[in-house]
Amino acid sequence: MKTMLILSIAFFSSGTLYSQIRNGIYLDKKDNKEYKTISIGKQVCLAENFSYLAYVDTINISVFGYKGNSIKKAKSTLSFKNYAALYSWDAAKKLAPEG
Q1: Which terminal residue of the chain has fewer beta carbons within 10 Å of its beta carbon, N or C?
Q2: What are the helix and strand counts (H, E) for the chain?
Q3: How far is Cα 24 from Cα 38, in angstroms, rounded to an integer?
Q4: Tens of pLDDT along 85-94?
């Protein structure tokens, strides 16, 4: 049984990514999606769910309630629109923003 991680908060405390946040917005260059950010003390985190969907295989990246492998169909589900994707730890480490 694999454990899935809901990557809903990513903290940026320093480094290249931190310098890419402009006016409370982080632009993920993998898919040009803009994420709102929020400052908590000296750290900055995403204020919304990380939702990069490189593929869907129901093992490493999935969308709750969706059993297929079509990215387009997965993105059209209510679950994806409300909560984004579920990632295995390995997939999250590869796909989530660095920093």
Answers
A1: N
A2: 4, 7
A3: 7
A4: 999 999 988 8
